[in-house]
Amino acid sequence: MAYDFQMIEKKWQASWERNKREKNNSKPKFYCLDMFPYPSGSGLHVGHWRGYVLSDSLARYKILNGYEILHPMGWDAFGLPAENYAIKNKTHPAISTKKNIENAKRQLKEIGAVYDWDREVNTTDPEYYKWTQWIFLKMFEKGLAYEKEMPLNWCPNCKAVLANEEATNGICDRCGSSVTKKMLRQWMLKITDYADRLLEDLDLLDWPQKVKKMQADWIGKSFGASVNFKVWEKDLEIEIFTTRPDTLYGATFLVLAPEHELIKKLVSNEKKDEVEEYIKKASEKSYVDRMADKEKTGVFTGAYAINPLNKKKIPIWISDYVLADYATGAIMCVPAHDDRDFEFAKKFDLEIIEVIKDNKLINSGEFNDLDYDEARKKIIDMIEKLKIGKRQINYKLRDWIFSRQRYWGEPIPIIHCEKCGLVPVDEKDLPVLLPEIENYEPTETGESPLAKIESWVNIKCPKCGEKAKRETNTMPQWAGSSWYFLRYVDNKNKFCLADKNLLKKWMPVDYYVGGIEHAVLHLLYARFYTKFLYDIGVVDFKEPFLKLFNQGMINKNKTKMSKSKGNVVSPDDLVKKYGRDSLRLYELFVGPPELDCEWNDSGIEGVFRFLNKFYNFVCEYKNKLIDENKKLVIFRNKLVFEITRRIESLSLNTVVSGLMEFLNDLMDLCKNFGGVDIKTLENFIITLAPFAPHISEELWNLIGNEKSIFESEWPKYDKNNMQDDFVNIALQINGKLRGNISVDINLEREKIILLAKENLEKKLDGKEIVKEIYVPKKIINFVVK
RNA sequence: GCCCGGAUGGCGGAAUUGGUAGACGCGCUGGACUUAGAAUCCAGUAUCCAAAAGAUGUAUCGGUUCAAAUCCGAUUUCGGGCACCA
User: What is the C-alpha separation between A53 and A574, in angstroms, rounded?
Assistant: First the structure.
């Protein structure tokens, strides 16, 4: 009988659809989560499948091990990608999104994954974003959401404001354009309030070190001191932040960021024009240009400050290498011990005083000869005693710019009233529906397209009843994805975002699978949201994802798969030609799951042949059943032991190669015996089941089982019964392989060594054995002269 | 510049963490079956040598060890992250 995968796969997918797994509260839970995709127009390619196959195999393995699993899927459908796609294709985002979801869902079903589609969530569904808005209102209530007029990252191409995380290195994450600054009123979330907890709780997580480090670097905690410098002959003080208070005696000038607010007050008359010119130039430079300039630029203000410790009169400069939005936007410069300050001092011929030599302080008054670590503490103590500054901690993390001047997002549920100011929409009036409009394209002014719909914007103030206007900005895509994992556990709840008991039952997520590209974006935001919801008593855990797994990318022709590069491999054709199980197996076999790898179409032939062989083997031998014997029992134990070990260590590529190897061995064994025992046959089919579920169901059924294979149990193995009677021992002379012997497992050491000597008689002839090394069951090494 | 990872046959990759390097698969070569092809099966496939024997071999050089892809030191190179954060 030929392996008719089309028939088999259709048959069992229909059967799974009909017979849903029963809920069973007595079983331990396992929440296995994929990062939900945004439904793009180009559909899924084999690279997307990699993560999904991995998580599904894991979920199925857990089912067989007696867990009740939660394995849901949904759509991150708001946001720029969906909107850009819609604009490009001249279709309303609501329509194109719906269509794209249908296609992606069809493709996902092809995998034969155990997704629980009853739990599907969609961030653009009003019943969903009602709760996205609700969380925002709670943050507003707690003072974590606030408005601010500020220069923002502006992408002239996307015509949108970008979060810092979306504008790394001044390049727009979406389109690659250079980002400029624009002054706009924005909604901000005070993620900085959570900086410390976000940093510290990384310790609770079983995540790849790399991701933890990226988050820690992004938060960027640094310890130091703030110090106030008096301006010479003016009643002004400039506050600076330094991580090196020990070098305070070496501070020979100050530098302010061009945006610093004190500049106007302290600039001297003769320098005024020059300074204004410099500030103007700096403001016109884009963020990238400012960063790309290797050569330092700057201008002297004509004013001086007093170094509070050595009372030296030091010049105050302005330069764009000082960032306005970190710490106080002003620094003290110690050119002797900082490369950037040194460069600046050299260029503008400023004084350089060395204050540390051989780790000891010099030129530092009463602190001379102290070790610099100790000096740091003592100088901060002095600063605090003199009340000219204090210990301080700073973070690189900035508050989260939360509004977008875009159509396709959740409306921010706030009303602007001339009398009452900012008025939150009443909870009972949620969701604030996104109005349907014709022109949803972004505007040149930086205003949201929603602002044009007067009937929607103009509203009565819920507080005083007077004229008021709705907030027209929308939320960023990250809003919906920052809490979606909570909604899966109770996706139809009308009264709260999810029932507390259900949250308690399922959360936190036990296994989270997705790409590393979300290391500092989604994963940081989701942690922040979870901590906030913890604080207001909605959830009772501090971290949403206990274990994170980043699957590697699949490349084609050494390049990341993308439609624009034309190197996309579609799963649809492969499913037609080889079937879902073959594709699943190859997705795993292609390489170590955490590493990037190269896709090779002909590679799938190998796993396809394996499934054919396996199918034919079972079909033939199910009619040649024999009693079990020692060799078969040993084989079976080794099989289950090895496959279990490899799954547990997530080495899924070697699970597949292992199954192939075991099949080759078993076929040889069975040829000798003229048959196989039923238990070995059963065990083998079960060990294949998590990875190739359709064919496993079919074979399980063919050998006489009526229930689904996923109602059976992952087989056990007897660790004490995995050893053949004879064992192969490699013989070495001076560490080089010189022979092999097969010996009885119970033979004692002396006799084995004797056998080895006999075997190597000729090669040892005339040589003196200096040492014999015997590694049981493995190696004998004779060291000779 | 700083911080992480990698580098193993023609290719993707194994190697129980110091113990027979190259499992498994792809590809290739030869053979069987066939009118022929497809499919399947058998044998071979790191390099040098006609072959046996042997030697060499896990980016390079050196070290530790009876024994190194694995540990240590230096170097080359590819990829990723961060990058004027004071």
Answer: 15
DSSP for residue A189: E
In the numeric block, which tokens belong to residue A135? 């969380």
Higher pLDDT, A109 or A484: A484
Our measurement of CA A596 to C1' B79, in angstroms, reads 10
Nucleotide with smallest C1' distance to residue A292 CA: B84
Rounded-to-integer distance, Cα A441 and Cα A84, Å:
9
Closest-CA residue to A164 (of A156, A172, A495): A172
**Strand B bases contacted by the protein (CB, 7 Å):** 3-4, 11-16, 19-21, 23-27, 39-41, 54-56, 66-68, 79-86
State, as a whole number of angstroms, the distance between the CA of A595 and the C1' of B6. Answer: 10
Please give the C-alpha separations between residue A342 and each of A12, A88, A301, A352, in angstroms, as whole numbers.
Answer: 71, 50, 19, 8
Separation between Cα atoms, residue A202 and residue A524, nearest integer Å: 10
A627 exposed, middle or buried (CB, 10 Å; 0-12, 13-18, 19+)?
exposed
Which secondary-structure segment (H or E) carries A728? strand A726-733
Residue nearest to nucleotide B18 (CA to C1'): A775
Q: Which nucleotide has the least CA–C1' distance to A396? A: B85
Phi and psi at residue A757, in whole multiples of 5°?
-65, -40
Task: Determine the protein residue whose CA lies at the shortest distance from the C1' of B84.
Answer: A321
A431 Cβ neighbours under 8 A, 6+ residues apart? A126, A127, A129, A130, A133, A410, A413
Summarised one tens digit per residue, pLDDT across range A382-425 is 999 999 999 999 999 989 989 888 889 999 999 999 999 999 99
Spell A158-179 as b/e; 16+ CB within 10 A means b: bebbbbbbbbeebbbbbeebbb
Residue A164: pLDDT band by 50, 70, 90 thresholds?
low
- A512 CA – B68 C1', rounded, Å: 37
> Which residue is listed with tokens 């022709």?
A557
A763 closest-nt by C1' vs CA: B53
Which nucleotide is closest to the Cα of A646 by its C1'? B16
DSSP state of A259: T
pLDDT tens digits for range A26-76: 899 999 999 999 888 777 888 888 999 999 999 999 999 999 999 999 999
Kindly tell me the sign of the dihedral angle through the C-alpha atoms of A628, A630, A631, A633. Answer: positive
**Per-position b or e across A277-300, b if 16+ CB within 10 A of its CB:** ebbeebeebbbbebeeeeebbbbb
Per-residue model confidence (pLDDT) at position A288: 62
CA of A163 to C1' of B45 (A): 56
DSSP labels, A574-598 = HHHHH-HHHHHHHHHHTS-TTS-EE
Q: Which of A261, A233, A377 is CA-nearest to residue A328?
A: A261
**Which nucleotide is closest to the Cα of A600 by its C1'?**
B12
Report how far apart, in Å, the C-alpha atoms of A437 and of each of A94, A454, A608 are: 11, 11, 50
At residue A30, φ and ψ (nearest 5 deg) are -145, 115
Nucleotide with C1' nearest the A322 CA:
B84
- CA dihedral defined by A5, A7, A8, A9, rounded to 10 degrees? 80
CA–CA separation, A292 and A179 (whole Å): 13
**Angstrom distance (rounded) from CA A783 to CA A785:** 7
| Distance from residue A760's CA to nucleotide B65's C1', rounded to whole Å | 24
Q: At residue A752, what is the residue type?
A: I
pLDDT (tens digit per residue) in A123-145 = 999 999 999 999 999 999 999 99
DSSP bridge pairs for A162: A153
